[in-house]
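User: Look at the shape:
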Amino acid sequence: QYVGSFAADELDVQRDAALLDERLRTLQDCPRRRSVVLKFSLQGLKVYGADGETLLMAHALRRILYSTWRSAEGQFAFVARNPRSPATKLFCHLFVG
């Protein structure tokens, strides 16, 4: 399930991984969720609606800077730059399952 996205451009993901982890921890009980299907490939990551056909989001691997899995909470998150956005404008996308 897709929980949501938040701006992460103030984070240096290599240096501030613990801070990012804390932000994810605060969102673990967020009730607003949407069922999605994640599809991973060598080209990148695509997020589809629950029907598995409606493309909601796509990120090429070259735009994904960081990803993490918090197994105890069932959280998966990645930090990426959106298409046609400046390199400094980053977003963290959070999923639970």
